[in-house]
Amino acid sequence: MTAPKKLFIKTYGCQMNVYDSERMAESLGDNYVETKTAADADMILLNTCHIREKAAEKVYSELGRLKPLKELNPDLKIGVAGCVAQAEGAEIMRRQPAVDLVVGPQSYHRLPAMEARVRSGKTALDTDFPEEDKFEKLKGRGKATRAPSAFLTVQEGCDKFCAFCVVPYTRGAEVSRPATRVLTEARELVERGVREVTLLGQNVNAYHGVGEEGADYTLARLIKELAKIDGLERIRYTTSHPNDMDDALIAAHGEIDKLMPYLHLPVQSGSDRILKRMNRSHTAESYLRLIERIRAARPDIVMSGDFIVGFPEETDADFEATMELVREVKYGYAYSFKYSTRPGTPAAERPQVEPAIADERLQRLQGLITGQQREIQNSMVGRDVSVLVEKAGREAGQMVGKSEYLHSVHIDEAQAEIGDVVRVRIVDAKTNSLTARQI
């Protein structure tokens, strides 16, 4: 029997890319096993992200570093997948002839046929937006044991067209997977040992999937059905848009025990002028009132957000409005970035903020956010929380997992195994984690 070839996948960017990489590996699983090093691989796939400036150039640099491997092993096949593949297409092969395969994020269900083509000595390019449902064409998730937490894509694409974002061009229009298929995949994951799923989408709370007998499933209804699955203990979702946070989803945070008290809800700026220039279609005030309603439904919820600093034409007053919003919300987590141009987006053509000014603003914002995060972590000391155990810790007898609030928790002298959900008492707060003892 011929030994399977080795597949190395390097994943860039978002959680959806992590999910996509898993599915690509599964689609090639009849002929390949995954390896952790590129040097001994028979096929290398770069699953790329186009969200940051110069993303394509970073991919070309990586391809340049991989080229010597192909010179040593002419049978090695190199592929580029994901959003840079979608944006650059055939240009990737033109600039780097070592590449054999280019596949966009909507076409990776065709990987087995593309792999067969490159093994015959040809190249393969597919950056279409096919009409068929790629998820329906993919193999089932299988029965092999896996980590207790998993991502599950339920929605892709975006119709919002924020002025800074390339997602509508690389992922396409908003599409929701049928609810029955999402539920089937969730059950398959639970059979493989998964206890927690994070539902993924570019605008996950815009989800509207077809259910049984043509019924319309919103995200709230989908979560209610997922909560009925025996063995599935925790449900999360990301990333959400404020405009799609409907009454039923807000209520779900107070009604469904398996829906964790953590919500990532990007606002991007606290300035209404900048929000309008971003084409965000909400105001700072409407966002703050929305946070109030969510906290009324689930008072202990931990909020997370995204911020872009130095957006074109941002003034000192605009930035101070962002700082004021952050002070009012008090985030448990937040991700902040200095604006970088995305080619082809409206904001790329506008007057840019001086880099030094943007740097200074980013440092101030991150200082405020870090203080809030530490304050919330410190407030956890003495509290009892539930932890999903994910791995062994560095110390003898120590286990590590995530609390319902997504905090990383180290359990000393743990009497638990990976996949267990245990009650613990927090005894110490460190910079990026909590320490606990089991109760």
* Beta-strand content: 15-25%
Euclidean distance between termini CA atoms: 51 Å
Helicity range: 25-40%
Give start-end ranges of low-pLDDT stretches: none
Task: Report the average pLDDT across residues.
Answer: 93
Spatial shape:
globular
Secondary-structure-derived class: alpha/beta
CA gyration radius, whole angstroms: 23 Å
| Side-by-side strand order of the widest sheet | 2-1-3-4-5-6
Helical stretch tally: 14
Number of strands: 21
Report the biggest beta sheet as strand number plus sense, adding barrel if it closes: 6 strands, parallel
Structural commentary:
The chain has 439 residues and is of the alpha/beta class. Helix content is 34%, strand content 23%. It is globular, with a radius of gyration of 23 Å. The mean pLDDT is 93. This is tRNA-2-methylthio-N(6)-dimethylallyladenosine synthase. Its cofactor is [4Fe-4S] cluster. Its EC number is 2.8.4.3.
Brief digest:
This protein is of the alpha/beta class and 439 residues long. The chain has 14 helices and 21 strands. Strand 5, helix 5 (111-119) and strand 6 form a beta-alpha-beta unit.
Write the layout of secondary structure elements.
Layout lengths: L4 E7 L3 H13 L4 E3 L8 E6 L6 H18 L4 E5 H7 L1 H6 L5 E3 L7 H9 L4 E3 L7 H4 L11 E5 L1 E2 L10 H4 L4 E2 L2 H13 L4 E5 L7 E3 L5 E3 H8 L7 E5 L8 H9 L6 E3 L7 H7 L5 H14 L4 E8 L6 H14 L3 E6 L16 H25 L4 E9 L6 E5 L4 E5 L8 E9 L4 E5 L1
Parallel strand pairs: 1-2, 1-3, 3-4, 4-5, 5-6, 7-10, 10-13, 14-15, 15-16, 19-21
Antiparallel strand pairs: 8-9, 11-12, 17-18, 17-20, 18-19, 20-21
